[in-house]
Structure formats: structure tokens, C-alpha cells
Design goal:
The protein is α+β, with helices and mostly antiparallel strands. The chain has one domain: Aminopeptidase.
């Protein structure tokens, strides 16, 4: 596998992120990623040969809590540690920027991945607003 370049706050284009979303989740994603990323604590992207292959966003409350969201790796590049490397990079930036707690929610099939990144399971609640 070629070298993977991890970039902090690269602000990928709308088209590039939409392409990754379609490949990863089979959805187009947000209509305006830049508006979200401007307000994020940080976002991390993985590139191979200048092609976006992974992404993670860290939202925050403006204080000491952050929320890891949208972690994804293109299906052709999974199981090479790229997701973990992006999460580690995002956590490093969070520490540098004064964050004390990072929250993540995940579907059951991703439990082992997030536990391998150092997260511990907690009780939490989610409400979907239609």
C-alpha cells in the first residue's frame, strides 16, 4: 500500500467529500460541508496520492467537550489502520486545543473499532428529529 498522508484541517472540496460519502455510506452527505467544517474543532483527512480516502470530523461545544463524528474510510482502503490513525490525529489536536472529554456514538458493528481507539462504552441516548 502506498504512503497515506494524514492532514489536519485540509477543507476538502464539496465534491471530494460527497464522493467519499457515496463510496462509504452510499449517500451524498451534507449539502454544504464547508459550513460545518468552519465550526468544527478540527477535521482530519487521509490522502493517498492526493486522493481523499478517509475523513473524520470533531465537533465541539465551544468549551471542553468534543464529539467525534463522520469517521469514514473508503471501502477499498479499510483494514490498514487508516481510521485509527485519523482518530489518533484528531485526539492529539483535541488535547492541544484544551478538550477534556471526547464523545462518540456508534453502531454496534463499530464497537471494536472505537474501543481499539481508546474509547470506553457508556450509556447514552440518541433522539432522531424528523
Amino acid at each position: 500500500m502506498d504512503v497515506v498522508d494524514i492532514r489536519i484541517d485540509p477543507f476538502p472540496s464539496q465534491q471530494t467529500l460527497s464522493d467519499l460519502w457515496r463510496a462509504t455510506w452510499e449517500i451524498d452527505g451534507l449539502t454544504d460541508f464547508r459550513a460545518v467544517l468552519k465550526r468544527s474543532l478540527t477535521h482530519v483527512a487521509a490522502y493517498q496520492n492526493n486522493h481523499l480516502i478517509g475523513f473524520a470530523n470533531m465537533a465541539w461545544d465551544g468549551g471542553v467537550h468534543a464529539f467525534l463524528v463522520d469517521v469514514c474510510v473508503h471501502p477499498d482502503f479499510r483494514d490498514h489502520g487508516i481510521g485509527q490513525t485519523m482518530v489518533e490525529a484528531a485526539l492529539k489536536v483535541a488535547r492541544q486545543r484544551g478538550i477534556k472529554k471526547v464523545h462518540v456514538d456508534f453502531e454496534p458493528h463499530l464497537r471494536d473499532f472505537y474501543l481499539s481507539c481508546g474509547f470506553t462504552p457508556t450509556d447514552a441516548g440518541v433522539l432522531t428529529i424528523d
